[in-house]
Amino acid sequence: MLSVEPDILTDLPWGQLLVNGLALGSLYALTAFGIVLIFKTTQVITFAQGETAMFSTFVAFTLLTVFQLPFAVAFALTLLFAGLFGALIERVVLRHISTTTILNPVIVTVGLSLILLGAAGWIWGYEIRTFPAPAAGPPFRIGTVVVSQLNAVIFAVTLALMGVLYAFFRYTRTGIAMRAVSQNRTAAQLMGISINRMNALGWGMGTAMGAVTGMLIAPLNYLDPGMMGDVALKAFAAAVVGGLTSLPGAVVGGLLLGIFDSVVGFQVPELRNTIAFSLIVLVLVVRPGGLLGKHEVKKV
Amino acid sequence: MARWLGTRGRAAAPYGLGLIAVLLIPALLNVIPGIAPGYVLYLVSLALIYAIVAIGLGILIGHTGQFSLGHAGFFAIGAYASALLTLRLGLPFVVALLVAGSVSAAIGFLLGLPALRLSGPYLAVATLGFGLAVPQLVIWQGSWTGGASGLHGLPLASLPLGAFTIVFRTDQDYYYLAAAVLIVLTIFARNVVTGHTGRAFVAIRDSEIAARAMGVDLVRYKTTAFALSALYAGIAGSLYAHLLHGISPEDFTVLLSIDFLTMIVLGGLGSVGGALSGALLLTFLQNALTRLPVVHDFKNLYIVVLGVILILTIAFFPQGLAGIARSARLRWATRTVDRPAGAGQIVELGERSGVR
């Protein structure tokens, strides 16, 4: 006798999982983009991206609740804060760290993230808060798929930021200078580009991008010092999978990981991270430079 | 065996001093008024157990140059293997300890395989993921691992010696056990890193290409470094489980992996003695911070201190405590010599580049 088993694959709400995954993936992509931006300009892999984003989001929260500023103003001020904060980190800490071994910057940025985590816990405490959403209202419906207004804002902001950054790196003198620094530091310096300034700019821009991500994630989940832990880790993985040397790679990696997370998280939520990381190791073993990155072959 | 555990030449003196210190500490604690010797000895045992992990991690990061941000994972594997073997199968402690170390080492060997193709930040991410996955798997397989609430009521550690059995009942007994294991593993680590295996590790750290050109088998030595360092973490995990008589997945967070990293950075990368002193110092610092009356929120203070230690050490003393001790020793040794400026640094550089 034939039993009628529900077909797992066709019964999944694929469309909805895809939309949710893309929204989550956009957030991973934005965070990963910040990490890759900092790596490409300064040669430093930052493990503090999540914590600088969390700290900036708390600043935004303070501006919104204590100073009662409108969302747009608080958003702009937070971006400014994050930009300066990132540049300050570069100027005060990383400029003085020898990068002869890859270990040093990793250890120092891990240290930075710990300090920011502790400081945020100290200033704002560990109670879980809700962060005001930039857009609230009835969700959009496309067929059976529901897109919340927040998700729509996430898509819009991600697309807009990607467009702006593409134009920045393609058409402005500063953007071209940053690309030059990432390609060949010595040659760029000989062309009169200040490496220090570009490093500070890279950190500022990367940190500001993290702030954007934080302000979009906080309304989706909640606000507390540990809010970026999981996201930052996934973003890191996304950056690595996409290829640390490739900005489009960060976006591709982030979106892929978001969709993966949404589909796997729907079925085996306990093993979300475990499966994600096993896949990442697999991808890296096959392509050590990531999907879109260049694998650098060292020459003697 | 004797070759691995023998001490060579000048290295014997510090071991003698260390042994005397180990034997004297309990006696001293009983004399000092106003402290609970049992609790302090428990704390010392914990520090000694962490030191075992730190020495293993030091071999991996400091000597071989392979990053790991997931050593809490190996520590957890050792702890869980030992707890499950004694609780569920009723195996004696010694067997559980050895099996826990071997299981952890085998998994370390497996994790070393992708490390053959990954370097620097890529490896850091992969090991970080490993460290996160282990507690998650433990919770997922809750039916036999005890899940989120963990495993409790582990039997006392014991050591069968021919006709009779030593049972480690008190904190002092356990302290001697932890110290004995640490001493054996310290001597073993020193002999490994000063021998040809250690020279291969250092060659890989300094330049993989040069090492290969000199005939160093990368596959063999990289996986050996991972397995060795996982072995240390696994044995320490087993000791930890039996010190606390119970474990839960919450004991093995990413923060613990960062604790281990801080211990070896503070102590000095590439130095067995450094890893040892870093572990002792950090464990006591952690405990001292919880005692400060002014602090309401210990966790925040501790992680800030941890971060500050990491940054300041890398910025100002990249060689850690071991480096400070080394330059002090050099200054002392060359104090009467009329030397041109800079000679000290040259000697120091020469010593730095060699195997310690």
In short:
With 300 residues, chain A is mostly helical. Chain A has helices at residues 8-11, 14-42, 49-65, 71-92, 103-124, 149-171, 173-183, 185-190, 195-220, 229-242, 247-267, 272-286; strands at 140-142, 145-147.
Protein described:
The complex is a heterodimer of chains A (300) and B (356). Chain A is mainly α. Chain A has one domain (11-286): ABC transporter involved in vitamin B12 uptake, BtuC, CATH 1.10.3470. Chain A has helices at 8-11, 14-42, 49-65, 71-92, 103-124, 149-171, 173-183, 185-190, 195-220, 229-242, 247-267, 272-286; strands spanning 140-142, 145-147. Chain A has a two-stranded antiparallel sheet with strand order 1-2. The longest helix of chain A has 29 residues, at 14-42. Chain A is globular. Mean pLDDT of chain A is 84; it is low at 1-7. Chain B has 356 residues and is mostly helical. Chain B has one domain (2-253). Helices cover 74% and strands 3% of the residues of chain B. Chain B contains 16 helices and four strands. In chain B, the strands form two sheets. A two-stranded antiparallel sheet of chain B has the order 1-4. Chain B has a two-stranded antiparallel sheet with strand order 2-3. In chain B, a hairpin with a 2-residue loop joins strand 2 (158-161) and strand 3 (164-167). In chain B, helix 9 crosses helix 11 and helix 12 (254-267) runs parallel beside helix 15 (320-333). The longest helix of chain B is centred in the N-terminal third of the chain and has 27 residues, at 37-63. Chain B is globular. The mean pLDDT of chain B is 84.
